[in-house]
From TrEMBL:
Residues 28-302 form the ABC transmembrane type-1 domain. PROSITE patterns: ABC_TM1F, ABC_TRANSPORTER_1, ABC_TRANSPORTER_2. Its main location: membrane. InterPro entries: ABC1_TM_dom, ABC1_TM_sf, ABC_transporter-like_ATP-bd, ABC_transporter-like_CS, P-loop_NTPase, Type_1_exporter. It is a multi-pass membrane protein. Residues 334-566 form the ABC transporter domain. Keywords: Membrane, Transmembrane, Transmembrane helix. It is found in: Cell membrane. The chain crosses the membrane at residues 26-52, 64-82, 140-158, 164-183, 254-273. SUPFAM superfamilies: ABC transporter transmembrane region, P-loop containing nucleoside triphosphate hydrolases. It comes from Nonomuraea purpurea. This is ABC transporter transmembrane domain-containing protein. The keyword Repeat does not apply.
């Protein structure tokens, strides 16, 4: 089902129209002030011409004083109109960019993912650079109109001196814009491709940094480097191409504007030489020919910025108009904390069935790691219910009938590679700032040594992705966050793979004690967690093949003993 927002933001043009409509008031005031600025700038050479013309006919101190006062008014208007006009437009631009950044970020952070073929790094680029460039349309339109005002005033002023001079300005401006519009289309398409390639390179390097430690482990550094080098080289090549087109555009605009200014100056000189315009009109024409280069440059650059804004808006539309991967229900689970997986077929799972009553601590020993990962994805609702066969029930209700928020309130799945955020130990354990169970979670996850190691304690600063923590410390910090959430049903996926055996034994006992009376499921091959669990389910070939206590399985099942004994 398509929401009204998705219909509105289906195309880049729709996004730009929304931005323009939302800032119509600021743009109107900005256009008036910037128009006054350009009109005052244009009036300066016109006033000089009139002063020269008047001085040659009548020389008086009063006329000189009046002329100086007129120039002072013009200069004051130029200064104030520019200052306040740009202040209004830049405030609106910044505010609009913020709105789009928040909207794109909200789409990326929704509980239900959008069906869009973009990585998180690409979405980040869209939420920053593309949002900023889209909002530039707020400044582009008023500046374009104000530049047009300057060109029209110049054409009218020169036309009053000589019709040919006015026509020369109008025809020259149309010719310049026609030529540059062809180049601006190439800039738009090239910029769109450049932004996509840069975003892909950013996503690639983010993935590589995340997996840097495993890459070191199996010697995949060189292959990873070559992979990133390839996408980065593509981004660089496209950036060079866009830079060349931008250079050609800027050079062509400057050259054409200079040609037009030169033509106006020479034409005015020829007309004055033949006595068809006065000396004052010649001064005005020469001054306007010099002045007109700036608004013409501004006027000729605006199509380029319009194309860039449109390219960025179209990339934002990829995220904003994308439909959700699934349409969640609206129900909330009833009281209780039992979990049932009924005949689920997905990936390596084949007719998987098991039931965990409320309050039980169950360990699932998966002989194939892919099966554990598939089960964790389904329980975390990262896989839409329509993408697999069978059902998952939380407190007796199917997850397809429940809202994602309700599922996440009752059922928390902590992945083996849980993200660590820039901040402090405290904010990573308790992102919402609720302040509940932090000491208990720190104690149970054996994070106490990390807290005690630094005099800041829980306020010790953590870098992005936990770059200043070891692998075991990051894993224990992620586990502490999951335990502090105190969910009715907690699923832990390989929570101690980077922890030594002694610490793992203590963590398993602590988790079992802290979660007593709460439903807990651990996907693991750790003997410590398997022994601490009330019951062990053996997941082999996508189905549950055995269930008993860990110690009973060790004595009765040779395959189990070989798989989990260390």
């Amino acid at each position: 089902m398509t929401t009204p927002d998705q219909q509105m933001y289906r195309t880049g043009s729709g996004i730009l129209r929304t931005a323009l409509r939302r800032n119509a008031g600021a743009m109107a005031w900005g256009t008036v002030l910037m128009g006054m600025y350009q009109a005052a700038e244009t009036a300066f050479p016109i006033a000089l011409g009139l002063i020269v013309e008047h001085t040659m006919r009548e020389r008086s101190l009063a006329s000189l004083g009046l002329s100086v006062a007129a120039l002072a008014v013009i200069i004051t208007t130029v200064s104030l109109s520019w200052r306040f006009g740009m202040r209004i437009l830049q405030k609106a631009n910044t505010t609009e960019a913020h709105r789009w950044r928040v909207r794109v970020a909200a789409c990326g952070l929704q509980p239900v993912a959008r069906d869009v073929d973009l990585k998180s790094g690409e979405v980040l680029t869209i939420a920053t650079e593309d949002a900023d460039q889209t909002a530039d349309i707020i400044e582009v339109v008023p500046l374009l109109i104000s530049a047009l005002v300057a060109v029209l005033i110049t054409a009218v002023a020169l036309g009053m001196a000589s019709v040919w001079l006015g026509l020369l300005v109008i025809v020259g401006t149309v010719a310049i814009l026609s030529i540059l519009s062809v180049i601006s289309r190439r800039i738009g398409s090239g910029t769109r491709e450049q932004q996509a390639r840069v975003a892909r390179a950013g996503a690639k390097v983010a993935d590589l940094i995340t997996g840097l430690r495993p890459l070191h482990g199996f010697g995949g550094n060189h292959a990873a480097f070559l992979s990133y080098r390839k996408v980065s080289t593509e981004a660089r090549s496209q950036a060079v191409t866009v830079a060349k087109v931008n250079g050609a555009y800027a050079g062509a605009a400057l050259a054409l504007n200079a040609v037009l200014a030169t033509a106006v100056t020479l034409a005015a000189g020829w007309l004055a030489f033949n006595g068809r315009i006065t000396i004052g009109q010649l001064v005005m024409a020469v001054g306007l020919a010099q002045f007109i280069m700036e608004p013409l440059k501004l006027f000729s650059e605006m199509p380029k910025y319009v194309m860039i804004a449109r390219a960025s808006a179209e990339r934002m539309a990829l995220v904003l108009a994308a439909p959700p991967v699934m349409t969640p229900g609206r129900e909330r689970p009833s009281a209780g904390g039992d979990l049932e997986v009924d005949s689920v077929r997905y990936g390596s799972l084949r007719e998987l069935k098991f039931h965990v009553p409320a309050g039980e601590f169950v360990a699932i020993a998966a002989y194939q790691p892919g099966a554990a990962a598939d089960l964790a994805s389904i329980l975390a609702v990262n896989v839409p219910p329509g993408a697999y066969e069978g059902v998952v029930r939380v407190s007796g209700q199917e997850t397809r009938e429940l809202s994602i928020e309700a599922v996440r309130e009752r059922l928390l799945v902590n992945p083996y590679d849980g993200e660590i955020f820039a901040g402090t130990l405290r904010t990573n354990i308790d992102p919402a700032g609720a302040g509940r169970m932090i000491p208990e979670a720190v104690e149970a996850s054996m994070l106490t040594d990390v807290v005690a190691l630094h005099h800041e304690g829980l306020d010790y600063g953590v870098r992005d992705r936990g770059a200043n923590l070891s692998g075991g410390q990051r894993q224990r910090l992620s586990l502490a966050r999951a335990l502090a959430a105190d969910a009715d049903i907690l699923v832990l996926h390989d929570p101690t793979t980077a922890v030594d055996a002694v610490t793992e034994q203590l963590i398993a006992r602590n988790v079992a004690e802290l979660r007593r009376g709460r439903t807990t499921i651990v996907l693991t091959s750790s003997p410590a967690f398997l022994d601490a669990a009330d019951r062990v389910l053996v997941l082999d070939g996508g189905v549950i093949t055995a269930e008993d206590t860990h110690r009973n399985l060790l004595t009765s099942d040779e395959t189990y003993r070989l798989a989990v004994a260390r």
